[in-house]
Structures are given as C-alpha cells and as structure tokens.
Amino acid sequence: MRTPLVAGNWKMNMTVEAARSLVYAMSASLRDIRGVEMVLCPPFTALLAVQALLEGSDIGLGAQNMHWQEKGAFTGEVSPSMVRELCRYVILGHSERRSLFGETDETANRRARAAEKADLTPIFCVGETLQEYESGRTSEVVGRQIRLGLAGLQPASAPRIVVAYEPVWAIGTGRASSAKAANDVVGQVIRPALGGLFGMEVAQAIRVLYGGSVTSANAGEYFACKEIDGALVGGASLKPDEFVAITRHAAGTQSASG
Ligand code: PGA
Description:
By secondary structure, the protein is an alpha/beta fold. Helices cover 46% and strands 14% of the residues.
C-alpha cells in the first residue's frame, strides 16, 4: 500500500506575507485530513515563515530546487544542508528548471544523489514536451529521464523517492493529460524503469504522482488510477479551497481502497 501524497508547488509566487496568509487559509482544513502525506513547496524566501506555521502538524515542507554542492563559491545557489535545515522534501528536475534554466538529466541526477546523501525526499519530475508527445517519443524520453536521473541511488533509500510524471504540455495550460494516458505512462514506462534501477519490489513501493493542470474537478480521476499515487499541483495550490479539495479527493481514494 502506497500512502497518497499531494504536494503544492508554489513556483515563484508568494511573498512572506502572502505565504503566511495562504497557509492560514488552509492549514486548519488540511490538518483534519487523514491518510494523505501533504507537502507545501514555497519559494526559498518563505520557507522559514511557513515552517514556523506548520510546526506540530503533519504537513511537510519542501524546497523547489537545490544545488548538489555542500558549500562554496556558487552565488545564488542553496545547498542540500541548507534545505535540510528547514525541509524534508525537495522538488528536483522540474520541467521549468529543464527548459528555462538549462537543467539536464545529468545535473538532475547530481541533485538526486545529493538529496539522498542529505536525507531529503526528492520529488523527482519527469515528462515529455509537446513536440516529443506529438512525435510519439513519450516512452523513450520519460524512460531516459528516470534511468539517467535516478542512476546511482541506493536501492535501500529508493523507496522514499517520489516521482512526478508531468507532461510538459499539460503544465499550466489547462490541458491536463487524460487519467488513463497518465496511468499508462506510469505503469508501462516509469515503474518498469524504476524496476530496472532498483528491482521491482522497490519500484512498487515508490510513489508516482501526476502533475499538469490538476484541479479539484479532475483530481479524483487521477487518484482512482491504480498506478497514480497523488499529485504535484501548481496553479491550484495557490488557491486554498482548491488545494484542500484536491487533498480531500486523495484521502477519499485512500479510504475507499482500504
Ligand atoms: P500546474 O503545474 O498544476 O499549474 O499545471 C504543475 C507543476 O508544474 O508542478
């Protein structure tokens, strides 16, 4: 049994004050939800403030990126131990990092290894672009992103990895993937690739989320899928009622399936 996980990726939104208001607006409702692992990923500048508000709750905190080096002359970067001081999770290899900031499979892999070393849970993002999707290359691209991005991690620590399958063409576009298509990519490409790296038993324990225009209206369809274990939510995570409703959907599937 994989515990469902719902993570909110706030991206480059929310000043400290706005972040506090957003957490106030949803934390009481989130605290009442059982059986779902919840993670909020504010920008670096709001991590400390949000951490203070989440203290004593089961709601986890994540960063949106980090560098792989421990310290040194890397102006503008944040190290694994800096993230670990405040967070248990870190989003890695997000498609916006890949497409806008030169992230590659190799650099995503360095970050994933650094997360393992720092005892952080990576939310490791993969997904094909529209062009790759339209030319029928989804399996090839997503399989490669998993194999290269998570290479070298230890099978013993692999069960904690969280993968997010986010088709790039579905992110922020309102054009979500169908639940069946997403479920097929996870079941036929991502889990077998994880199995190749860590063995099938470990692969079965790894949570795989769907991301890309998830809303309270479509979340239930993803959570009903056998291979999909939750969601990485962008735009809708900035709307308290939406994020709470999405998380409740995940709790519903949990109790329905025992
Ligand atoms: P979206 O973003 O929900 O706004 O499509 C998802 C993501 O980028 O993680």
